[in-house]
Every structure is written in C-alpha cells, then in structure tokens.
Design a protein that fits this description.
The chain is mainly alpha-helical. It is built from three helices and no strands. Helices cover 69% and strands 0% of the residues. The radius of gyration is 22 Å and the shape is rod-shaped.
Length: 95
C-alpha cells in the first residue's frame, strides 16, 4: 500500500503577510524601551520645574515641555500594543 501525502503550497500572499507580522513584532519589541525613555524625560522635566533636579537638557523649543514627552510615551506604547496585536493575529486565534 502506497500512501501519498499532499502538502498544500502556501500562497505568496500568505508568506508576505507572515513576514509583515514578524517585522511588526520586531518593531513592537523595540518601542516599549523608547516609551520608557520618553516618560523618564517627562518626569525629569517635571522635577526640573519643581527644582527637585538639575536643569533639563533641552531648555527651549517644542521638546522642552513635559507634556510633549508624556504624549510621545503614550503614543509609543499604544503603537507597541497595536503592533503586538497585529503581529500575533492568527496565532492568538488558533490558541
């Protein structure tokens, strides 16, 4: 008795989608440390305003405000969450 196993070929679109998901997961892994850094800059700026620490590194311009740094931290963390969700899309449904 001869048993033949036929493997389906994976469509090219599925391969591209898988690669995009892997890239999304790689970028999502890099964003939380950046978000933490932005949050630390925000807290440093607040401490500098309250005279609890030394002068903030950026004394004028857009990035001299703590609100900008905190907004950047929230934005980066939200992007990391969204990319993680996209990257684990099919795997989470199968589990």
């Amino acid at each position: 008795m001869v048993v033949r196993i036929k493997f389906r070929r994976t469509p090219k679109a599925a391969i591209k989608r898988r690669k995009k998901r892997q890239v999304a997961l790689a970028i999502a892994a890099l964003l939380p440390p950046l978000a933490l850094t932005a949050a630390l800059f925000a807290f440093w700026r607040i401490a500098a305003d309250l005279k609890l620490s030394g002068n903030f590194a950026i004394s004028s311009g857009l990035f001299s405000h703590w609100q900008v740094w905190m907004g950047a931290a929230v934005f980066l963390q939200t992007c990391a969450f969204a990319l993680n969700r996209y990257g684990k899309g099919e795997d989470a449904a199968a589990s």
